[in-house]
Amino acid sequence: MASGSASWNPMEAMIRRTDPEYDAERTGYQLLAPHEPDLIVPATTAGDVRRAVARAAADGLPVTVQNTGHGLPVTTSGGLLITTGRMDAVTVDPAAGTARIEAGVRWQQVIEEAARHGLAPLSGSSPHVGAVSYTLGGGIGLMARRHGYAADQVRAIDVVTADARARHVTPDGDPDLFWALVGGRGNFGVVTALEIGLVPVERLYGGGLYFDAGLVGDTLRTWSDWTRALPDEMTSSVAIIPFPDLPQAPAPFRGRTVAHVRVSFTGESEEGEALLRPLRAIGPRLVDTVGELPYTASGAIHNDPKGPAGFFATHDLLRELPPAAVDPLLDVPGRVVEIRHLGGALSKPQGSPNSVGNRDAQYLVGVLSPGLAPGTETRTPRLAHEKVRRALETWSTGGRALNFLYGENATQEEVRKAYEPEDYRRLTALKSQWDPAHLFRLGHAVPPA
Ligand SMILES: Cc1cc2nc3c(=O)[nH]c(=O)nc-3n(C[C@H](O)[C@H](O)[C@H](O)COP(=O)(O)OP(=O)(O)OC[C@H]3O[C@@H](n4cnc5c(N)ncnc54)[C@H](O)[C@@H]3O)c2cc1C
Question: Which residues cross the membrane (predicted)?
Fold first, then answer.
């Protein structure tokens, strides 16, 4: 495929349903229900993106974007998919403490480039996730309670808007569009690159404590109590993981249901070790990896599966996590339950204004049904997830985090819950201005007012 040249015609270079590359190009991390676009543009430059958007706008084709597929929303049927994985340049400016990252970059690349200069990005649990979408959807990272949302660190955005113009958007130059893009993600254009702030972090005291099935209840109860009085330097989460009895599961956990506490402490190791005492006192660990580690190895803290994988996932944001809210989470057999501790710097907007909502939440509780083959009927997992959701209603803020809204759950109504009501109205008004034809309606859609 010739691309990037002035004469490149996206309609000729595109991949169609009948082309042999179609399946590989549309399939990413999430296997349950991949996008089914009519046409795919495998973009290699911002120019490719601009020409693809121009053509789609001219033909009235809705547009969506995919980098890694970790955050696949409601499956697209028809329309045009722009894949960005080949746009993967990272440039660090050590003097400014910033990085310019292209649309197809994954966190591990940014982590490694930044580390050469003693810096780190506000990356999340999995270094394989796409950095741009993660950041534009909020971005709850390993240092979230200390440094806030990744979104708060956006300095400038290169984007192709629905009128097929490439724009460089800054908080001063275009405050409304900047505010809408950071938090509103794919609703206002296809972002071709971001400039983000980095933090001066080279190492952490972090890792995972893995407890066997008999200690799962104690672990969740102790962890939830422990999170009530922690410094912001400590970001942590806990998951109940039913590991299958299969060779691909790590040997010590194979066939066991395990409680996995993940900690990431930016302070001194001695202080971190002291803070962890109540957790280590829960009992013997199957594995204990917590110690001093370079930020380049931070993916080991959660040790998220590299995928690809078919899964159904839902989440709730809670304002508190009393013992009565922990009990229902101990009775979700066969599913992964994850609780992330929020609060700290996440509650205090910093940096440039953006539309990320629900900053009052103190915990994010996710439930994930793993191991679903492509096309699996989701009624059974849905019922199990709804049971948990009902049990948590008393403590729920009713909000959602855009980054954790996956698949068929990423409906317009659910997306609305990711924003403060006033902000949602402002987003729909700006959508009318920037994308009145709702060209970008196939992602986590915010409609025009
Ligand atoms: C294993 C795993 C671990 C995760 N850990 C965390 C975590 O620690 N913290 C956190 O906050 N989130 C986390 N997430 C959620 C993740 O941040 C989101 O799913 C994010 O959207 C993934 O981005 P992606 O590019 O990898 O995925 P994709 O599926 O490729 O993109 C998701 C959506 O973003 C939009 N999009 C993508 N690229 C662009 C672009 N260039 N311009 C405009 N819109 C675009 C599209 O609508 C697309 O459908 C995790 C997800 C998984 C599966």
Answer: none
